[in-house]
Structures are given as C-alpha cells and as structure tokens.
Amino acid sequence: MAKQTKKKKSIGWEYAPAPESLAQANIAKRYDHFIDGKWSKPSGGEYFRTTNPASGKKISEVALGSNADVDKAVKAARAAYNGAWGKMGGRERGKYIYRIARLIQERAREFAIIESLDGGKPIRESRDVDVPLAANHFFYNAGWADKLEYAFPNRQVAPLGVAGQVIPWNFPLLMAAWKIAPALATGNTVVLKPAETTPLTSLKLAEIIEDSGLPKGVVNIVTGAGETGAAVVNHEDVDKVAFTGSTAVGKLIQRSLANTDKRITLELGGKAANIILEDAAIDQAVEGIVNGIYFNQGHVCCAGSRLFVQESVYDEVMWKLKRRMETMIVGDPLDKNTDIGAINSREQLRTIKRYLKAGQKDGAEMYQPACDLPSNGNWCAPTVFTNVSQSSRIVQEEIFGPVLAVQTFRTVPEVIEKANNTPYGLSAGVWCDKGSRLFQITGSLDAGVVWGNTFNQFDPASPFGGFKESGYGREGGLHGLAAYLDM
Ligand code: NAD
Questions:
Q1: Considering only Cβ atoms within 10 Å of each terminal Cβ, which end of the chain, N or C, has fewer?
Q2: Of 27, 44, 35, which Cα lies nearest the Cα of 79?
C-alpha cells in the first residue's frame, strides 16, 4: 500500500493517516464479459491484468474481448432492442433506470473504494464526486424516460437502436453512467467497452444491472483494449457510436466511420484556459486553479491546464498558488486526506515526464513543492511552469497530468486571443468580480463549457462537450438525450 507523503517543509500541520478500509471492496479474482444478462467467457480464452497504480500490484484479471465476443454482445443488444426492451413504454424503462441509480447509492462506498484502487484517484473524489454524480446521471435520465414528448415537443422521437460506447480511464464509472443512462432512457440498447486500465467499476455496474432485473441483452459490457474498442465502433450492426477518449483515437474513429450512416458523438481532449482578472477574489481563484488542474491528478479532459493571470496580480497569485501547493498531500489514493493520488498507468507517467522535460527544454521555469513521493507505484508532484511561451508544447498539447503552464496578459482582447489559440475547445474558466465583463469574456471563448468564478463543476442537467479538436456532440441534459434519438 502506498504511503502518504511527508512534506519536507510544512506550513500547516501533519494529518494522521486515515486510510479507507478495503473490507467493503468485494473484488473477484477474475471477471468475464457481461453479455445477454450472463457472465460470458472470452472466446479466445484470454484474460489481462488490471493493477493498482499506487502499488503496481495486480488487483484482478478481466476478459480480453475479441471480434467474436463483440459480435455476440451486439447480437444480444439487437435481440433485446427488437424484443422486450424495444416494446417497453418509457414509464417502465424509467423504473429500471431509477433502480440502477438507487443500487449505486446503496453500494456507493464499495464503488468509491474500487474506483480509487483501480484508477488511482483520491478516495475523497471518488466518494464525493464520481459515485454520487454517476447515480445522479441515472436519476436524471430516469426522470425523462416517460416524458420524451415534453423534452422535445412537437417532434416524433424514436430510439436509434444499438449503441456502441467506448470510454476512457479518468472517470470510469461516471463515463459509463454518462453513456448508459441516456441510451436506456431513450429506448436504445448498449454495448459498452471500458478502458483497459480501469475496467472494474463498469463490471461492478454490470452486477447492479443484473440485480436490477433489467431485461437481458439491454446492457452488455465487453472488456479489452483498443482492438476491442475498434471492434465495437466498427461493428456493422451498431447504429450509434459514443466515444470518449483522446483526439488521436477520435480522429481514427471518425475516419473509419466516414462512409457509414452511424450516428456519432466524440468527446475528446482539451487544453482549458483558466483566466484570472485583476479584480477577481484571489484566494477563491487560487482554490479554483488548484481544483482546475490538480483535481484527479490532472487526468481531466477539461482540466484548467493553461493559467492566464493579469499582470498586476501575477506576483500575488503565484505566491499564494505556490504556498497552497506546498500543503498538498500526494500519496495513498485510499487515504481520506490525500489531494493527489497515483498517475493511472506507467505509460501515462512516462508521457507526463516527457512533457516536464520538453517544458524545461523550451526555457520555462518549473516549480514543484518539496514532497517525498512513495517509492512504488506511479507518482507526479504538482507542477507549475512559468515563463512559458505560447508556442511551447506544454501550452499547446494536452498533458493529462498535474502540470500547469502560466502566462500573463494585460488586456482582455489579448487574453481572449491567447486562450483561443489552441487546437482544442472543450472548457475554460474566468475569475472576475464584474458580471458584465465575465459574460463578455465567456461569450468570446471557443469552449463548450465556460465556468465563471468556479471550475470543474458538473451537473447531469447541463450539456457537456467541445468545439474544434475536442470533438462534437453533447452529453448531459436534453442535448445528451437528443444524441440517442431519431427525430
Ligand atoms: P484513448 O483514446 O487512448 O482511449 C479511450 C478508449 O478508447 C479506451 O477504452 C481505449 O481502449 C479505446 N480505444 C483505443 N483505441 C481505439 C480504437 N482504435 N478504436 C476504438 N476504441 C479505441 O484515451 P485515454 O488515454 O483512455 O483517455 C484520455 C483521453 O480522453 C484524454 O485525451 C481526455 O481528454 C479524453 N477525455 C475526454 C472527455 C470529454 O468529455 N471530452 C472526458 C474524459 C476523457
């Protein structure tokens, strides 16, 4: 088990370790696919390990999905769509979705522990953000299942059929909820492929789906890596593809589906600007910066990884930010005091380290607070780069780690131009005392989500999605339901 770091220089007080007990984490040694309401062995007989990124130790092993497994899952989803589920009214569908939401709530602690164990995120986040939000997505969408004619008045709405859904590792359960809940509310059936490094909470969700009595074949979960994901999205009997992941894979999928009539939504990478104006409440803004980039180790598509500070308050912001960084606890994801958990995989840690080197090579100044990182597992201290240039790779490319690049600005037009100068357009934040100025700036930013005087806030009723290379389509709210409907 990874230990919490002891800070060399403490400006506060040390917290006693408060590790979450593993007693409630009921994890099998091996998991098969969940197809047609049953646990189904992989056709090739192969399994792969899922490991704890905080220790490098194996947690369990899961089935490696082949084309044949995916085909079996799609056939089950099609049969359910043509059968009981397709004929069921919205009111009945809604009851099942409510049941799933309530079962997630009942097993919330178990889900939070497994999410932190498999993915490396601090238990505080899985417990207070991921799991409650996942349940809320099921509750929210359950409410619409029998009211689609009110959601989309004067429209004839119909489900699309079988949805093939592929999700990443940064919010494993939450992404599964974002995908499955609206698909079921609108009467579709599902084949979901979780990320290869974080399959466990999707498989635990399959247990809940089993317990909820959902008709067989409505939700099928096939595990595996990129090839299994490609088999899902390219299967000829899949009507709708919903993908969340990197821009590189999103582009591959878009190319491979170009000549098909499949409906597609792509939720891809980001490089969000977090803009601090001189009249902002600085202490609050510094908390927002920390939440924006260090939350979930920066493994957040909408992370505020580019900070823009108005010159007149730059010294104050940087002094307060560095002081705040010194108090952050990096270590055991299962400890309730931990702020920054483990980096999800060795490969991702290597990527982050490459960017740390690239930033320094480009002449930027790197700051990391003094902290002893645990010796086993994958760790990265919170990092901030100053004196960065707009063209530097650490400003232009998504790092997906706890790494912030800071730039200054003098005028509002200047910061809008700089903020929009990336290939991405997923999210942004603005900190400012004056509402009219805040709205003037937010309206000029090329970003699907813009937060005002806050950051990284999510709500099932609010649509989420990007512009430019951050993808297209929206998830959440009525927009998220519309993506699963023909109308
Ligand atoms: P990734 O693209 O490598 O993998 C995402 C998923 O796609 C995984 O399940 C993977 O197995 C699968 N996959 C890989 N190759 C595939 C292929 N050729 N065809 C089909 N599926 C394939 O991304 P990742 O590293 O797991 O996740 C991090 C990325 O996800 C970041 O870029 C992040 O910004 C993005 N993300 C975006 C959002 C959003 O809402 N916009 C949310 C979360 C994460």
A1: C
A2: 35
d(CA 409, CA 265): 35
Query: How many whole angstroms from 466 Cα to the centroid of ligand 1?
Result: 15
- Asked if 125 and 174 sit in the same domain, the reply is yes
277 and 212, same structural domain? no
Nearest to 161 by CA among 191, 187, 182: 187
pTM exceeding 0.85 = yes
Other Cβ atoms less than 10 A from the Cβ of 47: the count is: 17
How far apart are the CA of 270 and the centre of ligand 1, in A?
A: 12
Which DSSP string corresponds to 353-415? HHHHHHHHHTTPEEE---BPPPSSS-----EEEES--TTSHHHHS---SSEEEEEEESSHHHH
Atom of ligand 1 nearest to the CA of 250: 2
pLDDT digits (tens, 9 = 90+) for 288-314: 999 999 999 999 999 999 999 999 999
Rounded Cα gap, residues 100 and 109, in angstroms: 15
Q: Which of 50, 121, 170 to mutate to test the pocket of ligand 1 (most atoms within 8 A of CB)?
A: 170
In a domain, residue 11? The reply is no
Which residue has a Cα nearest atom 39 of ligand 1?
267
pLDDT in tens, 76-90: 999 999 999 999 999
Q: What is the pLDDT of residues 239-257, one digit of tens each?
A: 999 999 999 999 999 999 9
Between strands 38-40 and 33-35, the pairing is antiparallel
Q: Are residues 301 and 232 in the same domain?
A: no
Residue 236 lies in a domain: yes
Range of the domain at 417: 273-460
Q: Is residue 13 part of a domain?
A: no
- The total number of structural domains in the chain stands at 2
Which ligand 1 atom is at minimum distance from the Cα of 267? 41
- Same domain (yes/no): 346, 443: yes
Does residue 363 sit in the same domain as residue 479?
no
Per-residue 3-state assignment (H helix, E strand, C coil) for 230-288: HHHHHCCCCCEEEEECCHHHHHHHHHHCCCCCCEEEEECCCCCEEEECCCCCHHHHHHH
* Whole-number Å distance between alpha carbons of 99 and 29: 27
- Determine the distance separating the centroid of ligand 1 and the alpha carbon of 245, expressed in angstroms: 2
Predicted local distance difference test score (pLDDT) of residue 1 = 44
